[in-house]
Structures are given as structure tokens and as C-alpha cells.
Amino acid sequence: MKILRVFALLLCAAAPVRAQITQTEYAARRAALSTELPGNGIVVVMGAPEPKHDYDVFTQDYAFNYLTGFLEPDAALVIVHKGGNDRAMLFVQPKDPSQEVWTGRRLGAAGVGDKFGLEGRDATTLHKVIDSLKAANTGLKVLDATAQVAHLRGTKSPAELELLRTAAKISAMAHRDVLHAIAPGMAEFEIQARAEYTFRRNGADGPAYGSIVGSGPNSTTLHYNANDRFMQSGDVLNMDMAASYGGYSADLTRTVPVNGRYSPEQREIYQIVYDAQQAGERQVKAGAPVKASSDSATAVIKAGLARLGLVESADAKIDGCMGGDNCFQYRLYYMHALSHPIGLDVHDVDQLGKTGHYGVGSAFTIEPGIYVRENTLDIIPHTPRNAQLLAKIAPAVRRYANIGVRIEDDYIVTAAGFDRITSGAPREMDEIEREMAVRAPLAGRDSALIESYKKIRP
Fold first, then answer.
1. Spatial distance between the Cα atoms of 27 and 33, rounded to a whole number of angstroms
2. CB within 8 A of 85, min separation 6: which ones?
3. What is the C-alpha to C-alpha distance for residues 331 and 268, in angstroms, rounded to an integer?
4. Per residue in 137-191, pLDDT tens?
5. Which of 113, 116, 100 is nearest to 64 (CA)?
């Protein structure tokens, strides 16, 4: 007999009650985990601990959430797997009315059976029960079953996919809505606030991750999230913002002109990124290799950068580089992967990660980008060969500096092809410009407060 523990390594972005996922489905997940394990054993899955302060936001551990749907802190799931039979116990914090006035009502051990179909136990007895199980079963070996849970999570159920569709729909609604307010002089955080308001107002848990709202030079920083710059006419605004709904996270990015009209240079960069996303999409179907999608999108980006003079040629390399894919010149402007799965985590697990191929039900992003930073020339090693490169690409870098474009959508593979579930957010340039012409400004703000804010900014 073996004892297996699923270690709590990550926290999910949000974790509300998920009415669409039934207790029958949770039970099936636990049963499937048992079949993944070698022989008899004891599975211990720890939930996330209580936050240090009771007014801090609590988020549940991914694996624990996936197997139980229980959203209170300091809980544990114990499954005794022996002789083909499972006994599942959920250890929860005891009810304490004097404490619940601060933390909210607890379910307590007595309430676990009716609501979760599990044997409820008081969390204060967890160590005693585990010690008893160990004493009754000699020769136990502790193993990590995180990989087995990840394998199960890689195939999304219909209920999970529906939650992702709803998260994507709400995210797209917010992106469309903010287009009506963006204008020079506004702060990035105003757009963040409007989007996140739209998330919550439409039933989402909130943002699935720290919203990225970067204008001008900030548009070229991949995970910028200070969101404190005041936007200027002529800037592009890179908005990577999405909602979590029922604990499942969308991921959506649009890049728009702050003044409502793309400049010729912005259009050139945007068109390359748009064409790259289209090329990646064309490779998506059940059974197709994921690499084909990435290769197709990358080929478009490389050719486009060469056409604009930002690289010497599609496959040109940087002299003095340490090796690897980052030696290619195109990596100066496109330095991330094309895609990642989505689910309970915004960077989740999926069957495509194990097989290398799309499967029906795969849920993922496609997000090509080009980021022309002002300091691009400064990061190239100084060698005689690179001096020629710098002289050749410097005019193009100056021309396109501070233009960062990423277009990101969410997809679910179907038997017939795929659904782009974030399609409600405009992504073609002409459509974005038309939408931005329809004005719906934000409510007035206190100008004195804003001036005070500007003074305290570093």
C-alpha cells in the first residue's frame, strides 16, 4: 500500500461556487484519480490555507478545487483506495459562530455529506486519522500524484467548457465596451477599472489575472501591469484583460489606437500580427499537431519583420548569441510562445500538452505579437558583424518604436473544427475604429485628485 499526496503548488485565479459542475462529476474525477494510481494507497489532497488576514482574498488550490469543489480554507481530502473500493473523507474547519462573524459561515463537518456527498470530518482530527491509517498499513511510501491530477484536468468536461465559454463571452463584452471610452489624456487604470467593472457586473468572479493595460512604450512590455500612465494621441494601447467565471479563466488581448485611428506604422505591425493569428488558426483541428500552428504563425511574423526592415532576413541570426532559438533576429520582437491552454488556471493543462496534438475539447489561446521597444538596439551584443546589423535595422526600429501589438483569442476544438469563443471582441482594424467612433465616456472624475495623483507618481 502507498500513500500519495497531491502537493499544493499553485493557487487558482478565483474560486466561486460552480453550480454547473455537479457532485456526480466531482465524484467521477476522484474515481478516475484512483484508477491512475498504482495499487492500493491513501491519497491526501491539501486545500489552500487560510489567508494571513481574514480580510485578504482566499483562493483555493487547483487540484483540491478540481477534485472537490470545496471553497473553504484549511481543508483536506483523504481517499483510502483499497481492494477496488474508495472511502473519501473531507476534513473541514469546525463551525465556530464567534469566528464566523469575521470569516463568514462555515459548512462544518455535519454539512459536508448533504452538499458534497462526502464523509465530513473535523479538520482538527486530520493528523490523528492519517497516523491511524499509517499504523494500520505498514510499508507506506509517499509519492507525488500531482502529475496524475494534471493528466485528468487536461481533458475538459462539457460543464468546464461551458464555464470557459461564459468567461470568454464576458471578457469580450468588456473589451468591446472599453472601446467606447478610450481617449487621449485618460489613465490606463481607468480602462482597467471599466473592464473589471464589466466583468463583475455580468457575474464574473473578477479578473482572471492582473490586467495588463499598456499604452505607448508600455505596450511593448509583455506583462506590464502598473497601469498608471496617462495615454497620449498617437499611442497604441495593449489591453490583456479577461474574466474568471465559475473559477475558469479566459485570456483575451486587443491592441487599439488611443486616438481612434491607427497610424500607417501601427497598421503595418498590426496587419502582420493579425495575419499570423489567422495562419495559426488555419492549422487548428482535432488530431493536428500543435507545432504546425506555431510554425505557421511564426513564418508570417518573420517574413513581415523582414519586409519592414526590422530584421535582415526571415532566418537571420544575431552574432555573439549564446545559442538556441533566441539567436534569431525575429526574437527581438516576438519572444513568447504562440499558445497556452486555459482552464482553472489561465495557463492551464490540456491534453495537447501530453500528445502534442489538438483534441476535441482542447481549450487554448492563440496570441502572436510584435513588440518594438525603444531600446531594441541596446540589447544586441556589440560585435563587428552586429555593427552592420545595427546600421541596417536602426531606421526601422526608430520608425516603429513603442508599437507593441498582441492579438489574443480563446479557442475550443470541436469535431467540426474549432470555436473562437472570444469572437465578441472586435479584432479587425476597421471594425475597431468603427467601434471606437461610438462614444460612451466614463463618468466625470475629480481633477484635483488626479493632479495630486500625478505628483506622487515616481
1. 10
2. none
3. 18
4. 777 777 788 889 999 999 999 999 999 999 999 999 999 999 999 999 999 999 9
5. 116
Neighbours of 31 (CB within 10 A): 13
Higher pLDDT: 275 or 449? It is 275
DSSP code of residue 206:
E
Phi and psi, residue 355, nearest 5°? -95, -25
SS3 248: strand
Task: Specify the DSSP element, H or E, that contains 34.
Answer: helix 23-36
Amino acid at 434: R
Contact by Cβ (8 Å): 61, 73: no
What confidence category does residue 10 fall into, taking pLDDT thresholds of 50, 70 and 90? very low
Structural domains for the chain: 2-153 (3.40.350.10), 158-456 (3.90.230.10)
Residue type at 143 in one-letter notation:
L
Query: 339: which 3 cell numbers?
Result: 499558445
Q: Return all residues near 262 (Cβ < 8 A) that are at least 6 apart.
A: 236, 270, 429, 433
In the numeric block, which cell numbers belong to residue 395?
531606421
Helix, strand, coil in percent for the chain, rounding step 5: 40, 20, 40
Place of cell 469546525: 94
pLDDT digits (tens, 9 = 90+) for 441-458: 887 878 888 888 788 776
Cell digits of residue 440: 460612451
Indicate the pTM of the whole model: 0.91
Write the DSSP string, 368-391.
-EEEE-TTGGGGS---HHHHHHHH
Torsion over CA: 369, 375, 381, 384 (sign): positive
Give the whole-angstrom CA distance, residue 123 versus residue 129.
10
C-alpha cell, 329: 533576429
The grid coordinates of residue 194 equal 471599466
Q: Which residues contact 397 (CB under 8 A, 6 or more apart)?
A: 310, 372, 376, 377
Cα-trace Rg, the chain: 25
DSSP string, 145-191: -HHHHHHHHTS--HHHHHHHHHHHHHHHHHHHHHTTT--TT-BHHHH
Instruction: Specify the amino acid at residue 444.
Output: G
Handedness of CA 382, 386, 387, 392 (dihedral sign): negative
